[in-house]
């Protein structure tokens, strides 16, 4: 019912609209394949007016990628693919930003935009079930930001000889990256390959030039005997990992030690069977962190492993200014249960008990 009302409202609005050019056309609503015909018409309307920023955010409930079989499909025929000459071909050239969420789109369609939109700087694709192969190749491309997220049928993402500045990819094993001299910010997901060297392998050619690195592992981080390269320019490091029982977190300090200019560190912990164990804090070899100013620990549960990590920073971060502790659950849910709220409050109390007496006055301690 809500979908039908929304579609009717948009149709009435566009019928009254008399503008000849559009800076932005944004659809942000829970729509699926049953609105295919109407959305196709909306796109024709937008392209006919030389739209510069096009967003189709059709996430389920506004938050979740939907089942691929129910996603709206971007109409390839609108671009004149399938051997048809598009009547509005020249109007696509104005697109600067293309954002598609819970929209089935093919690599052929995306590559059309890449090579026929000379001003395209940002491309975001979330939850496409028809994206199999994509090539982003050529120094003539203006693309600065590329985000390919939760496209589970993706077999190959090739990026070569481009001027990309930011890359977000949730399929590390499918990524083939080379000659990206401008790339300074990368977010990458290791899926179920928790060994850090495997997560970093696809982006090894740019590690020395990165300023921001975010990694996600669905099964914790296993460091093994991996010798880290030096992250000579890294200023911010974010790790999003699963937290099991009281497994030590000190392994992440190896990455931090390999980044001499690091200023900000953030650790996001997803709780699975968290366990508070009374034990002595482990010690790591002392390593002066001369630039680290801000630490943020999300999903803090009050386990010994979290407390010993904070102690490591207190002992080694020479210019540390701020510690932010966020005890809230990092599992995204529409509604928090009473047990989750109670657990978060308990974690908040543990954080205060553990840290308020440890953190010296010149360092700001924030417990959210």
UniProtKB/TrEMBL annotation:
InterPro entries for this protein: At1g61320/At1g61330-like, FBD, LRR_At1g61320_AtMIF1, LRR_dom_sf
Domain FBD stretches: 286-358
Gene3D superfamilies: Ribonuclease Inhibitor
The name this protein goes by in its record: FBD domain-containing protein
């Amino acid at each position: 019912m809500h979908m039908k009302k929304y579609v009717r409202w948009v149709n009435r609005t566009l019928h009254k609209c008399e503008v000849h050019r559009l800076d932005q056309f944004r659809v942000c609503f829970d729509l699926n394949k049953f609105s295919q015909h109407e959305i196709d018409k909306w796109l024709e309307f937008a392209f006919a007016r030389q739209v510069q920023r096009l967003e189709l955010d059709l996430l389920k409930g506004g938050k979740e990628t939907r089942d691929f079989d129910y996603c709206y499909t971007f109409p390839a025929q609108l671009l004149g693919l399938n051997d048809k000459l598009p009547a509005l071909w020249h109007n696509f050239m104005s697109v600067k930003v293309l954002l598609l969420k819970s929209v089935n789109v093919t690599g052929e369609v995306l590559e059309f935009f890449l090579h026929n939109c000379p001003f395209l700087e940002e491309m975001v694709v979330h939850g496409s079930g028809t994206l199999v192969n994509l090539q982003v190749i050529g120094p003539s491309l203006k693309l600065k930001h590329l985000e390919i997220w939760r496209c589970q049928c993706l077999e190959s993402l090739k990026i070569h000889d481009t001027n990309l500045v930011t890359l977000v990819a949730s399929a590390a094993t499918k990524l083939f990256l080379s000659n990206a001299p401008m790339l300074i910010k990368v977010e990458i997901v290791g899926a179920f390959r928790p060994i850090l060297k495997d997560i970093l392998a696809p982006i090894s050619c740019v590690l020395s030039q990165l300023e921001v690195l975010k990694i996600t592992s669905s099964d914790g981080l296993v460091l093994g005997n991996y010798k880290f390269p030096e992250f000579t320019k890294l200023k911010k490091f974010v790790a999003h990992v699963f937290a099991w029982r009281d497994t030590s977190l000190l392994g992440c300090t190896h990455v931090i030690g390999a980044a001499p200019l690091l200023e900000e560190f953030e650790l996001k912990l997803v709780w699975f069977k968290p366990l508070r164990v009374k034990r002595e804090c482990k010690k790591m070899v002392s390593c002066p962190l001369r630039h680290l100013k801000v630490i943020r620990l999300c999903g803090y549960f009050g386990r010994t492993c979290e407390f010993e990590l904070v102690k490591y920073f207190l002992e080694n971060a020479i210019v540390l200014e701020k510690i932010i502790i966020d005890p809230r659950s990092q599992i995204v849910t529409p509604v928090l249960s009473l047990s989750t709220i109670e657990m978060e409050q308990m974690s908040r109390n543990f954080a205060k008990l553990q840290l308020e007496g440890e953190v010296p006055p010149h360092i700001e301690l924030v417990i959210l």
